[in-house]
Write a structure and sequence with these properties.
heterodimer; A: mainly alpha; 3 helices; B: mainly alpha; globular
């Protein structure tokens, strides 16, 4: 593994870990975030209720 | 029973939201597709266009899709043809939605097959049927299981019959997926994302520790050690010719952007459909960044550190440079790691079963865009829409399974739909947002209810940088693959592949057939929308 490899790995893994940590901090520190944040998994499609 | 304090409840629900949002994006793309592509395009060299694409394309276009979806939903549309029509007042607009139909539907056709491989591996670990002695045996088993040797070979494994075959597990997966979606049981997915996805990540971390401590498993081959494996994954310029030669190939930029879109579900037509169901005051800015970050973490920090180094250590550089299809590397490399772990069968079962469950959540969401069109445009009920989709996807999956020699159908559809199709759709959507909806109006939508402030800098990225970036790469790629003759012996082009291979031609014919079908469905939907609008005008003179 070359020095370039270590740098690419550190930047890639560190960058993604840092971004995820920042997102977790924002979610945890923002009041009311739980009611307004969504993912495709928790969005209910109204057609399920229709059937 | 004691009641939890409000503070504790708030913490629990916040952690639940983080787990649900980050977990929703995790799937086969992270652990299986990403390492396969990174290996094909030179490991560390691939990470440069990958990082650029994440920042300049993935994040901004995820915001674009969430915003346009909610914008269209507020105007009564849930399908992307309807949403495009609401944004762009031209008769051609809904027909651009053909891509946002065929991309998720056709990806489903092979995604469910890879999902079946995960289930089969999990069951084999559960029943102790994965104890092979050497790396070569794992490779031979996988090759026989997926029928890599010849068309139709996936129907049966020699000595195990139909019940051990990939086709049997494909049928089981189809039954599970369509039962869940037909009976409207998809609400349980939120619960699953909260708890099973973190379990997959923990399992991945344990496997990662084992990979990093492998050292040199075979002292007779000292060059196959974990540090060299990490070097293959991360050193820029692993490929012959070095970094600059790798980066001069437009296809590496296309593949990196395609992988970002694939794993973030951007340019799929999925996010735009789901976000159309959101309320006006819901956050879409922080939600999408959190999903992208969780996904990127699993892909780079787990997928990138586990699969390629493990494959390198056990199977050598020749295998890594020529992996068995885009998705196959993990199925050959990881069983070797589990074979070197205490309680390897338990970890093998947990890893593949959790990956299977992650794939189920992703594959169910792939069906929703087409369901929304069939309901909204044709007035079909959910169950009729699901039944119709079941038939279409079963035909496609059958095609992928049958043309199994060298993964030709799977890899062809994965490239033309899973990379190229997604890329074109993402390009269309970013232009629609930046130049038709208008970047200011689009940002107004994005910032409504947002829990974070998106920097204004991204307006310029969305309006200028992303479209120029995407169009330039595709221009160079088209020139290289369709207008030039390769100067290196043995190098082929996409045009050559199309002209020389009947299987590639048939795969493209399948794509066009599905495209024509959805064009007709959209034409019918447009008629219904126009009739409904005329009726509304007559009622309210």
């Amino acid at each position: 593994m070359t020095l370039g490899g270590w740098i690419v790995m550190a930047l890639s893994v560190g960058g993604m870990t840092g971004l995820l940590s920042w997102c977790i901090y924002k979610v945890v520190s923002t009041p009311g975030s739980t009611e307004h944040l969504h993912s495709t998994a928790d969005i209910e499609t109204p057609d399920i209720e229709d059937d | 029973m004691s009641q939890a304090s409000p503070g504790k409840e708030a913490w629990a629900s916040r952690i639940g939201v983080i787990l649900a949002v980050t977990g929703s994006a995790v799937g086969l793309g992270n652990f299986l597709r990403f390492p396969g592509l990174a290996a094909q395009y030179g490991g560390g060299a691939f990470m440069i266009p990958y990082a650029v694409a994440f920042l300049l394309l993935g994040l901004p276009i995820a915001w674009v899709e969430w915003s346009m979806g909610r914008y269209g939903g507020a105007r009564g549309f849930n399908s992307s043809p309807g949403i495009y029509r609401a944004i762009w007042k031209t008769p051609a607009a809904p027909y651009f939605g053909v891509l946002s139909m065929i991309v998720p539907v056709m990806i489903y056709m092979y995604y469910v097959y890879v999902e079946a491989w995960c289930l089969a591996y999990a069951m084999r670990y559960l029943f102790g049927a994965m104890d092979f002695g050497s790396a070569a045996e794992y490779e031979q088993f996988f090759s026989a299981f997926v029928g890599e040797g010849g068309h139709g070979n996936a129907l049966m494994i020699p000595g195990e019959g139909l019940l051990g075959s990939a086709v049997f597990f494909l049928v089981v997966c189809f039954a599970i997926n369509f039962t869940l979606i037909y009976r409207g049981l998809t609400r349980g997915i939120e619960w699953f994302c909260k708890w099973a996805m973190p379990a997959l990540i923990v399992c991945g971390l344990i496997v990662l520790v084992r990979v990093l401590t492998l050292g040199t498993p075979d002292p007779a081959i000292p060059e196959q050690n974990v540090l060299a494996g990490l070097g293959y994954m991360w050193n820029p310029g692993t490929n012959e010719g070095g970094l600059l030669k790798s980066l001069a190939n437009p296809e590496i930029w296309l593949a990196a952007a395609g992988q970002i879109f694939f794993s973030l579900s951007v340019g799929f037509g999925i996010i735009i459909t789901y976000s159309s169901y959101l309320r006006r005051e819901d956050d879409i800015a922080l939600s999408s960044v959190t999903a992208c970050a969780g996904n990127g973490f699993c892909e780079v920090a787990l997928g990138g550190l586990i699969t390629i180094p493990a494959a390198f250590v056990f199977l050598g550089v020749a295998f890594v440079q020529n992996p068995p299809g885009t998705f196959g590397m993990g199925f050959v490399a990881l069983p070797n790691v589990f074979g070197q772990m205490p309680a390897g069968n338990v970890f093998g079962f947990l890893f593949f079963f959790l990956l299977f469950l992650a794939a189920v959540t992703s594959s169910l969401s792939m069906l929703q865009p087409a369901i929304a069109l069939l309901e909204e445009g044709l007035g079909l009920g959910r169950k009729a829409s699901v039944a119709m989709l079941g038939f279409i996807t079963a035909v496609g999956a059958g095609f992928v399974v049958f043309f199994s020699k060298d993964f030709i159908a799977l890899d062809t559809i994965d490239f033309w739909i899973g990379t190229f199709g997604i890329y074109v759709l993402a390009t269309f959507q970013v232009i629609l947002f930046g130049w038709v909806l208008g970047v200011d109006r689009g940002f107004e939508e994005l910032r409504r209810g947002a829990e974070i402030r998106i920097p204004t800098f991204f307006k310029y990225v969305i309006k200028y940088v992303a479209p120029v970036y995407l169009l330039t790469i595709i221009g160079f790629w088209f020139h290289n693959e369709f207008l030039t003759v390769p100067d290196e012996p043995g190098k082929t082009t996409r045009l050559r592949q199309i002209l020389d291979s009947l299987e590639v031609q048939l795969s493209l014919a399948l794509i066009f057939t599905v495209g024509i079908l959805f064009t007709l469905l959209i034409a019918q939907s447009v008629k219904r929308w126009k009739a409904a609008e005329r009726a509304q005008v007559e009622v309210i003179p």
